[in-house]
């Protein structure tokens, strides 16, 4: 008998999620490591958040109705098919807990979001990691990895940390090749930043199918501190998730701020314009024989160096100039890469000053 409480088998095999580095308190460092909004939050969202200060003693409405109604209004979705969570990570955990168990498998791309393996192991299921085609999810390889044990497929679209994406046609081809009892989770965390004409966030496919769910977040739109995620799925899936999600899992300030941010489509559009301009500029400025910049549809770029040593040297050079970027070796296995969030014009010009060949 153990002398202390023992966690369930497999829990201690999970490597904890490591967030991007932050600057020291009081420092003037520019954080480009966590894909946050370079324009801050919507002023309307800030005002809504602040309005809650006089009502901290009151429980929020338990189903995030205020937020679900706003999302339904803006995106043309039945609010009853929306579930909100304490960040999209909360919802990914819930999906894994509900649809994975001992003996099951979840299929995911090699460089997919690092939370997918965590939630899969936490549910007691096995991870099937599928190699990508030049840092892009490979539909044929994903389908070839499906077995009788497969219960769930994770797809980040666009993907973090690569910024690459699959077209709507490719996502539909992936879905068409899955058994109806396999849940396809489309993680569209960066959908607001996509400019590709052949992209779809997944709403249409969710409406057509019984085994697809789309997960989104407000974190990249200026509300990372508020921790707001949301998902859309068929009624039977929403019913399952609502049975186990925590009561009052989205606080009132987050609900009100999220609702205001969702409705502030002008701010979201400005954020998209700024990102597209400086993402494309940064890509063009840095691309060379020495540096490869993966084509990104997100609010960051992944810079690939000739070697791990060169990536480390570049990371230290950027840090010396007060620019904090994300190393992706330990988390994603891309030791020669640095992920750089799109920031202000000044920040982007400083990055180029340091890295341009």
From TrEMBL:
Reactions this protein catalyses: L-histidinol phosphate + 2-oxoglutarate = 3-(imidazol-4-yl)-2-oxopropyl phosphate + L-glutamate
Alphabetic keyword roster: Amino-acid biosynthesis, Aminotransferase, Histidine biosynthesis, Pyridoxal phosphate, Transferase
CDD domains in UniProt: AAT_like (cd00609)
Secretion signal, residue range per the UniProt entry: none
Pathway(s) the chain acts in: Amino-acid biosynthesis; L-histidine biosynthesis; L-histidine from 5-phospho-alpha-D-ribose 1-diphosphate: step 7/9
Keyword Amino-acid biosynthesis: yes
Assigned EC number: 2.6.1.9
Ranges where the Aminotransferase class I/classII large domain occurs: 29-355
Keyword set includes Lipoprotein: no
N6-(pyridoxal phosphate)lysine modification, residue list: 220
Pfam families found in the cross-reference section: Aminotran_1_2
MF terms (GO), sorted A to Z: transaminase activity
The organism's place on the tree of life at top rank: Bacteria
Needed cofactors: pyridoxal 5'-phosphate
The protein's enzyme class: transferase
Assembly, per entry: Homodimer.
Family the entry assigns: Belongs to the class-II pyridoxal-phosphate-dependent aminotransferase family. Histidinol-phosphate aminotransferase subfamily.
HAMAP family (UniProt xref): HisC_aminotrans_2
PANTHER family per UniProt: HISTIDINOL-PHOSPHATE AMINOTRANSFERASE, HISTIDINOL-PHOSPHATE AMINOTRANSFERASE 2
Protein name: Histidinol-phosphate aminotransferase
């Amino acid at each position: 008998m153990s002398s202390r409480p023992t966690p369930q088998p497999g829990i201690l095999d999970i490597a904890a999620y490591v967030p991007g580095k932050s600057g020291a308190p009081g420092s003037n460092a520019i954080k480009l490591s966590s894909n946050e909004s370079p324009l801050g939050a919507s002023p309307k969202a800030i005002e809504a958040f602040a309005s809650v200060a006089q009502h901290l003693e009151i429980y929020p409405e338990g189903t995030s109705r205020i937020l679900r109604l706003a999302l339904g209004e803006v995106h043309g979705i039945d609010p009853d098919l929306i579930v909100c969570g304490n960040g999209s990570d909360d919802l990914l955990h819930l999906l894994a807990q509900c649809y994975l168990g001992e003996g099951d498998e979840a299929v995911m791309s090699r460089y997919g979001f690092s939370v997918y393996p965590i939630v899969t192991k936490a549910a007691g299921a096995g991870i099937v990691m599928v190699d990508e085609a030049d840092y892009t999810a490979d539909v044929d390889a994903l389908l070839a990895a499906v077995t009788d044990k497969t219960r769930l497929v994770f797809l980040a679209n666009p993907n973090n940390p690569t910024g690459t994406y699959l077209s709507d046609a490719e996502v539909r081809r992936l879905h068409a090749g899955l058994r109806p009892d396999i849940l396809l989770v489309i993680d569209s965390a960066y959908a607001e930043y996509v400019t590709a004409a052949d992209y779809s966030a997944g709403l249409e496919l969710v409406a057509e199918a019984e085994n697809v769910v789309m997960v989104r977040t407000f974190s990249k739109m200026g509300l990372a501190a508020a921790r707001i995620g949301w998902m859309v799925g068929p009624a039977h899936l929403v019913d399952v998730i609502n049975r186990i999600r925590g009561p009052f899992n989205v606080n009132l300030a987050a609900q009100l701020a999220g609702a205001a941010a969702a409705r502030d489509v002008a701010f979201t559009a400005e954020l998209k314009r700024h990102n597209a301009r400086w993402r494309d500029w940064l890509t063009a400025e840095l691309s060379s024989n020495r540096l490869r910049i993966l084509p990104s549809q997100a609010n960051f770029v992944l810079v690939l160096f000739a070697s791990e040593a060169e990536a480390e040297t570049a990371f230290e050079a950027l840090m010396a100039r007060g620019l904090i970027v994300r190393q992706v070796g330990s988390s994603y296995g891309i030791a020669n890469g640095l992920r750089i969030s799109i920031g202000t014009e000044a920040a982007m010009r400083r990055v180029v000053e340091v890295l341009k060949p």
